[in-house]
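Slide 14.
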Amino acid sequence: MKQMTIQRLSLRNFKGIKEFTLEPKGEHIQVFGDNATGKTTLFDAFIWLLFDKDSNNKKDFSIKTVNKDGEDIHGLDHEVEATFKVDGQKKTLRKVFKEKWTKKRGDINKQLTGNTTDYYIDGVPSKRKEFTDFVESIIDEEIFKWVTSPSYFNEILHWQKRRDILLEIAGDVSDEEVMQSKIGLDKLADALNGRSIEDHKKVIAAKRKEINKQIDEIPLRIDEVHRALPDTSQLDEEEINNELQHLSSQLDDKQNELNRIQSGGEVTEKQKQLAEVQGEMQEIKNNHQSGQYEKINEKRYTLNELEREKNRIRQSINQLNNRITANCEQTEHLTKEADDLRKQWHDLNGKEFDGIKPTKDEQQCACSACGQDLPPDQVEAAHEKAMKSYEANLGEFNRQKAQQLEDIKASGTQKTSKAKELEKDTEVAQQELEQAKQQLEAKQSEIGDLNTEIESLQANVSDISENAQYQTKQEEAKQIEHDIQQLKDSVQESTQKVRAEMDEIKSKKASFEQDQAKFEQIRKADQRIKELEDEQKQLSADYEKLEHELYLTEEFIRAKVDLLEDKINSKFKHAHFKLFDTQINEGLKETCETLYEGVPYSGGLNNAARINVGLDIINTLSEHYGFSAPIFVDNSEAVTRLIDTEAQVISLVVSEQDKQLRVEETERTKEAV
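Slide 15: predicted structure.
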């Protein structure tokens, strides 16, 4: 690991410090001083020398010394010089900020026209680019700031940047790892189709919303088709078709006859007027019917809503019945198993050891080789050996029997307990079932009342002939027809006769054509209803599939959160990180909150814990990026003991009694020396 330490840091005319030299010589030190004595200025000078910014990463800060009125004191050079050790090699950097004064033509006095900065590397004047390139050769600016201030990572960096750094250190978790971590998540791969999890959730939400809308509309659309069906119970389609062919032939003959005897169209203009008035009458009729049926349609919409609620309650009743049946079956099965175990326990408990206890009379008292009687002491020894064997076998039998009895008892207790739980759940389900049945009965009553109301509204629909506007137009049409009739009276008698005959034929034909259209309308309606029902089944299947996919995506995210947070937190000794927040809708939102013993850094964590958590983060960052730099710990008086770190530590301690900066070696430095 590349290591950088400060050997010497000198400030001159920098942010109110006229002259000060800090010589830690690469060791840990403490800098004591009252507020506003310049402790933080040391850190600002160190960062400004390297990157033209202060310790809070601000570029637009002033380094000039000011008077008591807050005005810049001109004519001073502002200088910071530092000697470092980088991997054992000493390097000295120096930066001097000067005012530029210029005397313009015709002026006696010089005027301040800007500022300049001079750069030095090991005492050699350098250009700005050479200086910055040299600093960059040591370490990247961003990484340098991360590993020199315990507060920078948690207080300066945006949470998204902190999150990116943690993912870089620990490595992200691939979708494949997540899917392998939990059974069933592998089915999500095909559904994603190359999309991210978040994008796929958006796709599911949009599809579910659209499918729900379509499912709700289908009953209304089917009802509209049903209501538009004509009555054909008294009609014969084949007879109608034959009659239409006959009338069409008659009409063609009469038209040919009329063309021969009629040369002009004296009534054409009046007929146009009549057509316009008749069109207006039709429009009035349409508006009249629309107003009459609007309220009925509103009631029908409410009726459809009630029907859907009734179906949902029925579905709930079916589910509760299935639940009660399953519980009863499982309870009966568990009870039987418990009874069998109880019988097995009694059978085993009554079983006795079948070994034979040895006696002295049964011992072999003669030698098997020569037949002579054995000495009494050998007979006694043989008896004792046989007794020990018998007692050992008896003890083993009793131990195994006791263990088996205990196992049977534990199993029976477990099954009895489970059966009681199922019985309680069955009671709850039966109560819910009774409530659902009451709800169903109430919905059915509402539906009956609404149907009665709709029938009443339909019975009170008024006739168009009662409409005043329609009556006015009707009178106007009669007058035009009267005028037409007068014009027709002047036409030859033969023309009048033919027209009358043609009108009669057309009237009959129109009537049959209307009846013929009713059959085609019914065929199209039946086809449309079938299409809508098929569409409803497919939409329901699609919705169930989306519900399952949504469940898998949420399971995927939760599994990834667990894997990712465990992977990242394993890289730190004290700091832990919360990378996701659970929303009200149980969704997850990305975040990056530092925790110490469960307390958030941004809420409730004391200053000492904040500093040590910051040092823990610096240790991990330094190890990851292979670089350690001097750490400036501000307000370190709040910490009883800083955690161990390989980097040089410069502690800035608030001390009211020190009106000027005072430097001491730390205990760790003294021990090291």
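Speaker note: Residues 279 and 422 are 73 Å apart (CA to CA).
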